[in-house]
Specification:
By secondary structure, the chain is an alpha/beta fold. The protein is built from seven helices and eight strands. Helix 3 runs parallel beside helix 6 and helix 4 crosses helix 7.
């Protein structure tokens, strides 16, 4: 195998347990297995790739969901592998830590950009290139969130490879100085690698903790409460947004491509 497409067409089925032709034109990405389970139960469809690194499910309308795992390396991998099926749009349903009082637990964030603190994206494009979503995709996303009666936040997400940092005052101060609204481990990578691969992409992030506050650092009990109260709507809004794009048939790819 000499070309990128030869590699990804071989690797996508190997990583996901799903043949290329079985993926839909629009794809939801997550890094939580319960999102896959809920999707499969709702649409009575099969979960593929169980026991492997990534799991997928696709409904009868051609909407797919992929659990790609946690972290920027996995985020880059899935956005590379998706070049094999060339989706029309990809939406990330992720969780993030809220860094401002207005980004409280249970709030949804539609990021306007992401700061590339993870380093992975530097292997794809120079550091000067901003990590941005596709505007037209986010237009559908924002309309959907409002239709569900949710008051979302917009702002910049800081993406890092560092998972355990809540104790580090120097790192915490840097986050405050950067004026980011939230922190996660995938968004900037997904945006940059999506841009490099000419894939339209966006994100709805659910604030699951407020790590700058001692009482806001995520715990197992907190995560259970957030999952029980907010995850169903998070998934439902993602499904509806991507279904609306598909049904309306509006072109969302950037003209620069």
């Amino acid at each position: 195998m000499k070309t990128k497409i030869e590699i990804t067409r071989d690797w996508l089925p190997r990583y996901t347990g799903t043949e290329i032709a079985e993926f839909g034109d629009y794809i939801l990405l997550t890094n939580f297995s319960n999102y896959i389970t809920k999707f499969a139960e709702r649409f009575d469809c099969e979960i593929r790739g169980e026991g492997g690194p990534m799991q997928t499910a696709t409904n009868k309308n051609g909407l797919s969901i992929i659990n790609f795992g946690i972290g920027s390396a996995n985020a880059a991998t899935i956005m590379d592998l998706l070049t094999a099926c060339n989706p029309k749009g990809v939406l990330f349903l992720g969780k993030c830590g809220g860094l401002k009082q207005t980004a409280e637990i249970g709030r949804y964030i539609i990021p306007i950009a992401a700061i590339r603190g993870e380093g992975t994206s530097n292997d794809y494009l120079p550091p000067e290139v901003p990590a941005l979503p596709s505007f037209k995709l986010h237009k559908f996303v924002s309309d959907t969130v409002l239709a569900y009666g949710q008051e979302y936040r917009t702002g910049v997400i800081y993406t890092t490879n560092r998972r355990v940092w809540e104790w580090d005052n120097k790192f915490r101060k840097r986050l405050i100085d950067l004026s980011a609204i939230g922190i996660d481990m995938e968004t900037a990578t997904l945006f940059i690698v999506g841009h490099a691969n000419k894939i339209s992409r966006g994100a709805i992030l659910l604030v699951s903790d407020m790590p700058l506050l001692p009482e806001g650092v995520k715990t197992q009990e907190m995560d259970k409460k957030v999952t029980a109260k907010y995850v169903d709507m998070h998934l439902e809004m993602g499904i509806q947004a991507m279904t609306d794009i598909d049904e309306k048939g509006e072109e969302i790819k950037h003209f620069g491509y």
